[in-house]
Design a protein that fits this description.
Elements lengths: L5 H11 L4 H23 L1 H7 L3 H20 L3 H5 L9 H11 L9 H11 L4 H35 L2 H25 L5 H19 L4
Helix pairs in contact: 1-2, 2-6, 2-8, 4-10, 6-7, 7-8, 8-9
C-alpha cells in the first residue's frame, strides 16, 4: 500500500506539516475513521477472543457479509459509483461513518476492506476514492494493530519462531498484499463487488457443510 499510494501519503505528510490542504483533509479523515475501531478493539479484545473466534461465529459473519455485498451491489450501478465525491473532499462526518463501519470488522470473518469500501460508497465517495480511503485506513489500522501485538507478544513470537521466520512472513505478506491490491483495484474498475459476496456465501456454505458432517 505504501508503494501504491506513495503520492497520497506524501501529500498527507505535507498536509500535516501545513503545506497541503487537501492532504491535511485526507489525513484528518483517516485519523478520525481509525479511532472508533481502535478504542473499541482495545476495550473488547478479550470478549472477542473468548466468544467470537469459533467456527460458527466466523461462518455467520461470512454469510451475513456476503448477503449484504450481493444486495448492495444489485442496488448500485457501476456508473453511479463513478460519480461520487473525490477523496480530497471527505468530511469529518463521512470519515466517522466509515470508521464506525470498520468496527464491524472486529467480528472475525468480517472483511475490513469490503466493509469500509461499502460504507465509503454509501456516504457518497466515488468507487476509486472509497477503495483508496479503505486502503489508507487499513494501513493505519493494521499497522497500529501490528505494533500493538508486537509490543505485547513480540518476545514470545521471537522465542518460539526465532527472527528469520517472522521476517520471511512479513516479506511474503507484503508481496501478497501488493499483488492483491493491484488486482482488486483493476477488477473493481470494471466490475461490481458482487463476486466477493458470492464467494463469502459459498465458503460459508461449504464450511458449514464440512462442520455439520464432522469432516472438520
Amino acid at each position: 500500500m505504501v508503494l501504491l499510494y506513495h503520492r497520497r501519503l506524501r501529500s498527507m505528510a505535507e498536509g500535516i506539516l501545513g503545506r497541503d490542504p487537501h492532504g491535511r483533509q485526507v489525513a484528518i479523515g483517516v485519523l478520525i475513521a481509525f479511532l472508533p475501531a481502535a478504542v473499541l478493539g482495545v476495550g473488547l479484545e478479550h470478549p472477542i477472543r473468548d466468544h467470537l473466534l469459533g467456527v460458527w461465529p466466523v461462518i455467520i459473519a461470512w454469510l451475513i457479509g456476503g448477503s449484504l455485498l450481493v444486495g448492495f451491489s444489485s442496488r448500485r450501478r457501476l456508473e453511479e459509483e463513478r460519480r461520487g465525491r473525490v477523496l480530497d473532499t471527505i468530511t469529518i462526518r463521512q470519515a466517522l461513518i466509515v470508521g464506525a463501519a470498520q468496527c464491524l470488522a472486529l467480528w472475525p470473518g468480517t472483511s475490513r476492506s469490503l466493509v469500509t469500501i461499502i460504507a465509503a460508497l454509501a456516504v457518497g465517495l466515488s468507487l476509486s476514492a472509497a477503495i483508496e480511503f479503505s486502503f489508507l485506513l487499513g494501513l493505519l489500522t493494521l499497522g497500529a494493530g501490528t505494533i500493538y501485538e508486537g509490543l505485547k507478544n513480540g518476545g514470545e513470537v521471537i522465542s518460539t519462531f526465532g527472527v528469520l521466520a517472522p521476517l520471511v512472513g512479513l516479506v511474503v505478506a507484503f508481496v501478497s498484499a501488493v499483488v492483491a491490491i493491484r488486482w482488486m483495484v483493476t477488477y473493481l474498475e470494471h466490475h461490481s463487488l458482487a463476486i466477493f459476496g458470492w464467494y463469502r456465501i459459498g465458503i460459508a456454505a461449504v464450511t458449514a457443510g464440512l462442520v455439520l458432517t464432522s469432516v472438520i
